[in-house]
Amino acid sequence: MVADATNLDGIDDSSVHVLLARNVFGDPFLGLERGLALDLSFTQREDDESRKAKLDVVRRKLAVVAEAARILTTGGQLLVVEQYTPEYAEEFIDQVNDGTLLRPASLAPFEQVELSDVTPKDYSRRHFNATTWVSTAVNHK
Questions:
Q1: CA separation for the pair 63, 54 (Å, rounded)
Q2: Chain centre distance of CA 78
Q3: SS3 breakdown of the chain: % helix, strand, coil, rounded to 5?
Q4: Which residues are registered as beta bridge partners of 20?
Q5: In angstroms, rounded to a whole number, what is the distance separating the alpha carbons of residues 64 and 79?
Q6: What are phi and psi of 65, to 5 degrees?
Q7: 75: Cβ–Cβ under 8 A, 6 or more apart, which residues?
Q8: Which residues contact 87 (CB under 8 A, 6 or more apart)?
Q9: How far apart are CA 74 and CA 13, in angstroms?
Q10: What single DSSP character describes residue 59?
């Protein structure tokens, strides 16, 4: 199923075993000249539109994490696969793991893993240069 991962209303709470977020946490402005980093520190010269764009990016990524926490069964996994701009995903994941950005209590911290260890072989062959992280759902209600 392909869907907007910020709003998965049609999926029951605690009913999914694996949620794949492929190229979701990378640079949302890939290919555009104005690529924005996720850091939340703003310079004096940045205009309001640039600030809003940065905050919107962070909010949407956190909404994906929150939806994953809601729909994953205990032991279920949020699998993050970033092929194009893993450095942006890594920055976001680091901020979630260190508490700079709020991670739902029902998700364990993200761990970097080998894609071939967590996906079928033909998937990992097609995405051989991807960087991959996994977070496991814990202590659901």
A1: 14
A2: 8
A3: 35, 20, 45
A4: 79
A5: 12
A6: -65, -40
A7: 17, 136, 137, 138
A8: none
A9: 11
A10: H
Please give the single-letter amino acid code of residue 127: H
| DSSP assignment string, 15-29 | -EEEEEEES-SS-TT
* Residues in the chain with pLDDT values less than 50: 32-38
What is the DSSP pairing of strand 16-22 with strand 72-82? parallel
Q: Looking at the whole model, is its pTM more than 0.85?
A: no
For 16-114, where are the alpha helices, taking DSSP H only? 48-71, 86-97
Decide: 80 and 97 in contact? Cβ < 8 Å.
Answer: no
For the record, the structure tokens of 15 come out as 């009913």
pLDDT in tens, 30-64: 654 444 444 555 555 566 777 788 788 888 999 99
